[in-house]
């Protein structure tokens, strides 16, 4: 039954940094939408996610978590490096649409 499912188009949601994306995404010309989020809002959301998700390292106190977040010591590293690496990829990969979460919520 699974063999009869279409292989394209597909929608894949990911939090991966650009360097961890499969090479096939770039080679096959996949269309990608990258949504960047304000670092403050991202840190708050990530903190609450870590507090409730047992698969993540213990979030600890907010002040410690925030310091680690700002220093890139959380899963996947620095927020800046993450969003910047996708921004740089956008410059050479035309099928990448880079947008901001805050712009999405303004449209409601």
Task: Give the helices and strands, then pairings.
Layout: H1 23-27, E1 32-36, H2 39-52, H3 62-70, H4 79-92, E2 96-100, H5 101-107
Parallel strand pairs: 1-2
Detailed description of the structure:
This protein is mostly helical. The protein has a domain of 72 residues. The chain has five helices and two strands; from the N terminus they run αβαααβα. Strands 1-2 form a two-stranded parallel ribbon. The chain is globular and about 45 Å long. The termini are far apart. The model has no long low-confidence stretch (mean pLDDT 88). InterPro entries: P-loop_NTPase (IPR027417), Sulfotransferase_dom (IPR000863). Its EC number is 2.8.2.-. This is Sulfotransferase. GO terms for molecular function: sulfotransferase activity. It holds the Pfam family Sulfotransfer_1.
């Amino acid at each position: 039954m699974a063999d009869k499912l279409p292989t394209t188009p597909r929608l894949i949601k990911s939090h991966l940094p650009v360097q961890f994306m499969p090479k096939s995404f770039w080679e096959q010309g996949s269309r990608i939408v990258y949504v960047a989020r304000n670092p403050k809002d991202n840190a708050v959301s990530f903190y609450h996610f870590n507090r409730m998700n047992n698969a993540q390292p213990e979030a600890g106190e907010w002040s410690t978590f925030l310091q680690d977040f700002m220093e890139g010591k959380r899963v996947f590293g620095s927020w800046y490096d993450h969003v910047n690496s996708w921004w740089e990829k956008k410059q050479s990969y035309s099928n990448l649409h880079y947008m901001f979460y805050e712009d999405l919520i303004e449209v409601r």
